[in-house]
Amino acid sequence: MAQRLALQRLLSLPTRGLLAPHGRAFGTSAGRRNTFNVQDGSDFQDRVVNSPKPIVVDFHAQWCGPCKILGPRLEKLVAKLEGKVLMAKVDIDDHTDLAIEYEVSAVPTVLAMKNGDVVDKFVGVKDEDQLEAFLKKLIGA
């Protein structure tokens, strides 16, 4: 009986953050489709540099406390914009080459990119009002 209850609870949990067989995260909410983890340099080129939409690139690390605060805030605001901007997450420990190429010297570092060019940048944690202003500037709202 206890095992059945535990299984029912497990099955009723949201499915966000599951990994697809090819290693990319997927979810059921619209907001998750606007955010993705960069897999490698080629993936960054295809999905970030060549993106037809404005894109926010979050350079972060698993061990970074401020990154754990900023990331969810930024994801929530990107989701609110309903596809007007995308968000790419780059773990600097997995993708040191990208961190060096984009001159990331501290985390979190967030880049705003349009047509493959960096148009704005900030380092550190920002409050929601500052993040909204950053995103609105990026999409021209």
Automatic annotation (TrEMBL):
Keywords: Disulfide bond, Electron transport, Redox-active center, Transport. One of its GO terms (biological process) is cell redox homeostasis. Gene3D superfamilies: Glutaredoxin (3.40.30.10). It comes from the Eukaryota. InterPro entries: Thioredoxin, Thioredoxin-like_sf, Thioredoxin_CS, Thioredoxin_domain. Residues 14-140 form the Thioredoxin domain. GO terms for molecular function: protein-disulfide reductase activity. The keyword Disulfide bond applies. One of its GO terms (cellular component) is mitochondrion. Belongs to the thioredoxin family. This is Thioredoxin, mitochondrial. The lineage of its organism: Eukaryota, Metazoa, Chordata, Craniata, Vertebrata. The gene is Txn2.
